[in-house]
Amino acid sequence: MELIPSSGGVFEVTINDALIYSKKETGVFPKNRDIIAKMEALNNE
C-alpha cells in the first residue's frame, strides 16, 4: 500500500493501476467497508 499525497480533496484508490474508487467522481468519501468490498470483488475475478 502506498499513500500518494494530492490536493483539492481528491481521494482515489487504485489496485494494480485499476481505479476502484474516486471521491473526485462521486463527491463522497467512501466507507471502509465499501472499499474492502470492491477489493474483494476485484480479487474474486
TrEMBL record:
Transmembrane segments: none
Signal peptide: none
Keyword set, alphabetical order: Redox-active center
Domain of life, source organism: Bacteria
Organism the protein comes from: Peribacillus saganii
Pfam family, one: Rdx
Listed name of the protein: SelT/SelW/SelH family protein
